[in-house]
């Protein structure tokens, strides 16, 4: 074959190799599947990592250790700043560990910031968000990560961005963003290992510390006397009925699968002016409603834009005469 023939043959082979049918391009994973695998990874994997949680003007570093052993789930969460408070969870038993009793009376350890991601329903999320997976691989804490965006379909929820470990779908970073793309809340691992050398003592309180078992209150279920005349797409009541708290206060809970809004209703004697309070991603609103001769104070708290709380306040009403 002549040189020109070889050249033509080479060009033909090269064009086949570079054509879409000539090679298999890496496929972008399904967004819903990624979220479901992430949701399961918190309880299925063993891990030991340090992450930063920043919200509003506060920032703190925490260490989380997790292990599945002999049919039991062990978790330790330690605040690495300040008084180094620890929360130990063994299945459903939760123990709060303080350096001493005086600190226990003054400080309460916040719960794990990963709660919102456990038990995610990806189908439900698609009602309120567009799920978009980037075709570029990111890198967080020295690990390759898929970048997934939850883009709100309306003005009633915040945007979310997550970076999931490419190999095991573990959450390496989460950003919550306002309508203008401003950062409201961030969780980001700085280091994590999935082959930790965990020991039994990692989940046992130090003898010199003060420990207290946390008992989660179980409010009594009662018939709900209140309703919403409208809800943003994707939001629904978490409980079919209300929960009874102390002093005649009842509680309802709304969620769109990512954001939650707590609603409290209590009888009062005096009218309180309608007001709103914004702290980072959290918005709280209060409004007094009069039903016949009785006044009720309605309080709503959630990680949603202010317009959501304002709108929900305007459509909250009794189901019938109370």
What is the CATH architecture descriptor of the largest domain? Clam
Q: CA-to-CA gap between the ends?
A: 96 Å
Helix/sheet category: alpha+beta
Q: How would you state the average pLDDT, rounded?
A: 87
CATH 4th-level superfamily of the largest domain: Lipoprotein localisation LolA/LolB/LppX
What is the helix tally?
A: 5
Q: What's the CATH class of the largest domain, please?
A: Mainly Beta
- Secondary-structure element sequence? HHEEEEEHHEEEEEEEEEEEEEEEEHE
Number of separate structural domains: 2
Q: Note poorly predicted spans.
A: 1-25
Strand content: 35-45%
CATH T-level topology of the largest domain: outer membrane lipoprotein receptor (LolB), chain A
- Rounded to an integer in angstroms, the radius of gyration calculated over CA atoms is 25 Å
Q: Determine the fraction of residues in helical runs and give it as a percent range.
A: 10-25%
Main beta-sheet strand count, sense and barrel state: 12 strands, antiparallel
Shape: globular
Counting DSSP E segments of at least 2 residues, the number of strands comes to: 22
